[in-house]
Amino acid sequence: MQVTDFRPADVTATTPPEIEATRHPVLFLDFDGVLHAYDELALDDNFRLIENPNLFMWCPVLERILAPFPEVRIVVSSDWRRLFDDAALIKLLGPLGARFARCRRGVWPDPGR
């Protein structure tokens, strides 16, 4: 099988202008297995967040990794997105919350953030 040479410029030519103007590096972030262990207990039987000091225990690691790249925005790509609104997700992310990109279906992250 031969791999075709793919150049990002090939895609840019078809990118709508409103998206072209919002170019920021974006990190699509899952929580489970990334910011804490995949099987870490997080919710009670009523889907409310429980107190668990192991939740989000690896956020400081991601903060250090992203520190040299302040332009990187975070889009939450997790089941947590269905359970919590934007304000709660920002709070859960702690200092990483400042990088949160309010992204909805069909809407690109806000370039001003």
Tell me what you see in this structure:
The chain has 113 residues and is α+β, with helices and mostly antiparallel strands. Helices cover 26% and strands 7% of the residues. It has 5 helices and 2 strands; from the N terminus they run H-H-E-H-E-H-H. It has helices spanning 8-12, 17-20, 59-66, 80-83, 86-93, and strands spanning 26-29, 73-76. It has a two-stranded parallel sheet. Mean pLDDT is 79; it is low at 1-21.
Concise synopsis of the structure shown:
This protein is α+β, with helices and mostly antiparallel strands and 113 residues long.
Topology record:
Layout: H1 8-12, H2 17-20, E1 26-29, H3 59-66, E2 73-76, H4 80-83, H5 86-93
Which key features would you list for this structure?
alpha+beta, single chain, globular, two-stranded parallel sheet, 113 residues
